[in-house]
Amino acid sequence: MWFSVYGSGLFFFFGILYFWFLCFPPASLFAGDDKGILFHIPAIISTVNPAPVLYGEVHGGLYHLGPVDFAETIWHNACAPSGGYRSEIVENTGLGGEYLAGVSYVFSEGGGVCDRCILIKTAKGNKIIARVVTYGATKGPGDIDVSPSVFTTLNEDEYPRTMTWQFAKCPMVGFIQYEFQTGANIWWSSLWVRNARVPIDKVEVKSNKRIKYFELQRGTDGTFTDGGGFGAGPFTLRVTAIDGQVVEDSFVSFPTGQLVKSKGQFK
Known about the structure:
By secondary structure, the chain is α+β, with helices and mostly antiparallel strands. 14% of the residues lie in helices and 31% in strands. The radius of gyration is 22 Å and the shape is elongated.
């Protein structure tokens, strides 16, 4: 008797609920790009995803259509080499698309801002995670420039386009990658550490020349450099995140100009 009464009632209730969601889908699940549902895009934060891990203070200002893009149609991306981001890392850097941002030089941290992720929230309630690939002069210190994909997701023709942003843990889009500079060698060793989920605190090397771990100098373009070189032979890189996580990778010799995938990633 209980099953026949309550069971049929529950069936009727969930049937109505299913019909309602078909006819009136929640805006948070379907608002965004012109191709439909958002949860196929790793960068986008919706009400169905867990809250991202955030770092530091919240900054406020306006968002603008830079545009910031991999093609560098107007400006060079400060965190890339002269030829721009190499094609092999574009998908991961763009968080599965081209979800990019540029911040004021005030937040450049001497290149430390490069390849970090930020959570952007508009006054309209739209939000997205984007990768910082450049920095420079902005109208206001808290203003940001964004890529067309980010702009389309956030914008509802509001004016002014007010928003807040904060550094955030990046979505999981593969392992860390090491991009060794084309002009680097065993006497002057330099590289980028790409696709780290958590902001990087420091990068160190240990080699036949550097018997103990030696901290590399961070450049304004996001590179990590040993001006005296790693020396000949094998070496190990140790990457430490701001939360203390560590990833280590060993190399047989210095791979000038190569892109090498790490065996690890920050959690």
